[in-house]
Amino acid sequence: MSPTATQHIIEVCYLVATALFILALKWLSAPSTARRGVLAGEIGMALAIGGTLFHHGIVEYKWILIALVLGTIIGVPLGMVQMTAVPQRTALSHACGALCVTLVGTAEFYLRAPDVPKFMMAVLSMEVILGGLTFTGSLMAAGKLQEVLPQRPITYKGQNFVNLSLLAISILVAARLVLHPDEKMLFPLIIGIPLIFGVMMIIPIGGADMPTVISLLNSYAGLSAAAMGFVLDSKLLIIAGALDGSSGFILSVIMSKAMNRSFSNVLFGAFGQVQTSAGAAKEERPVHSATAEEAAGILAAANSVVIVPGYGMAVAQAQHKVRELFDALTKKGIDVKFGIHPVAGRMPGHMNVLLAEADIPYDRLLDMDSINPDFPQTDVVLIIGANDVTNPAARTDQSSPIYGMPILDVDKARTVMVIKRSMNPGFAGIDNPLYYFDKTLMLFGDAKGFVGDIVREITGGGH
Amino acid sequence: MTFDLINSLYVFMLAGFIGFEVIRRVSPLLHTPLMSLTNALDAIAVVGAIVIAGEAKTTFSTVLGTIAIVAAMSNVVGGFLITDRMLRMFKSTKTKKS
Fold first, then answer.
1. Phi, psi (5° rounding) for residue A308?
2. Which of A194, A273, B55, B77 could form a disulfide with A132 if both were Cys (CB 3.0 to 4.6 A apart)?
3. Which of A90, A100, A135 should one mutate to test binding to chain B, selecting the residue with the greatest count of B CBs within 10 A?
4. C-alpha angle B22/B23/B25, rounded to 5°?
């Protein structure tokens, strides 16, 4: 076959792959069609890779095949991780994507330099800067999520200044390269500095901010891939990158709104530590606590129950015990729903995946806007490992660091029960006035064990 | 290789709008699978890496291209695999009973 004919066939493969990618995301909009979306994405990917193998410029297949096999071997265990490890796996895959883009950008530069047109040098710089910072940033995020790095934010004086300077220097170097693409020795700088920036960017970020950060890194990874598409003049890459970039962008906006953070705050990744001073004025206030037996009695007597899960449920691996509780209550004819805050957990949708894994039907999982009107008619709210997202101070106390953050209105229910290890304030160090309400019962203990005890009381005490 | 800047910018802009409209409709229920699926799709960067590795112009570019293929391919396989595993777990009350 002539080279032009092969080229046309490759282009058709890419065109079909692009259409399938868009369909994949479209079908993902509902759980009933979502798996079809994955299939569409897989076929599109197979077409694109298959087509590329016929590219006329390819002279050596050995390394390509070895790399494809090796990538598959690494990919399979990454696809089989536990559901609780999904946030760190996601961060790790952002890092892999960014690594690929950065390496290709670097190779492109040294193949073309010094003959690089200005605009191409500009997008090439964007590709490696975004790729570099996403690579180390995502590795750091994965490390924090896997808890091999400290989860708590590390801050120092002048941190934002240092970070922004690093970013500014890499942009200046990139600008210099655009004007003088022959100065090859500058190129390592626009990879190296963003690599450092990526690390510095994540250092001040704590666990509770991870949903926003992961979304943001997702967006950066997409944009760097789109920049790579500009460099290689590949529409397929531009479109896939733009889709990924807008997906990460939308998720970051949703997450930042759910935490009441300004969008510029998110864009520059400059999350300070949430002020801890507010929790300083500690006083011993009485709380009501209850045993598993009492909690079981209250739950069994209710008509409607809303369970509010948080990161604590994931840490305690309590989702399967929660399912047993769900089944036990549902069997008694009690209406059980789950109220899920957008930033509950460590990544967008984290709680939904864990509860789906535990076999809880997805129509019982309601997002904040759908569940909030139901709280005034709810008999019992059971909070498992969630804290700040239920804090009524966000609505009423202007001095609170989380004032203005949309919360689950659990305090409007008739009775609130909170499973918590102790009275220590949560991650952000913010006291939760909910715990001192008369209608609130504190259930002290490990989430998994306590829910298990409640289930035993309900089923064992069978009426 | 032509470098058609304006065309590419139009494509980028339109794809951005399509992405925005399509992804806005994804239910919050599926935000985690959304992220892992877009991740897998984003690994389409593997096609660029394949060309770089296969052209074998310099040892340096071949090595970088080869590593890039490994990184991207692990995302392709891992991303689709985990997305499908997650989506298989989402069952409604109706399908559970039947």
1. -110, 105
2. A194
3. A100
4. 75
Tokens at A318, concatenated: 């309590």
pLDDT by residue (tens digit) across B30-54?
A: 999 999 999 999 899 999 999 999 9
Q: Could you please state the CATH topology (level 3) that the domain comprising A287-460 is classified under.
A: Rossmann fold (3.40.50)
pLDDT in tens, A143-173: 998 888 887 777 777 777 888 889 899 999 9
Give per-residue burial for A289-325: e unless 16+ CB within 10 Å, then b: bbbbeebbbbbbebebbbbbbbbbbbbbebbebbbbb
Asked whether the beta carbons of residue B76 and residue A120 sit closer than 8 angstroms, the reply is no
Residue with tokens 């069997």: A331
Number of neighbours of residue A414 by Cβ within 10 angstroms: 15
Q: What is the pLDDT of residue A118?
A: 86
Question: Which residue from B88, B18, B21 is spatially nearest to A32, judged by alpha carbons?
Answer: B88
Which of A209, A244, A388, A453 is labelled catalytic? A388
pLDDT of residue A263: 62
Q: Domain spans of chain B?
A: 5-89
pLDDT tens for each residue of A284-335? 678 888 898 999 999 999 999 999 999 889 888 899 999 999 999 999 999 9
Residue A336 DSSP SS3: strand
Cβ(A208)–Cβ(A389) below 8 Å = no
User: How many Cβ atoms are within 10 Å of B29's Cβ, its own excluded?
Assistant: 24
Domain boundaries, chain A: 81-267, 287-460
Cβ A75–B20 below 8 Å, yes or no?
A: no
What ipTM does this complex have? Answer: 0.93
- Concerning whether A379 is annotated as a catalytic residue, the answer is no
Mapped onto helix, strand or coil, the DSSP state of residue A340 is strand
In angstroms, the CA A377 to CA A365 distance is 17
What global pTM score does this model have?
0.89
Q: By three-state DSSP, how is residue B84 classified?
A: helix
Q: How far is CA B92 from the centre of its chain?
A: 28
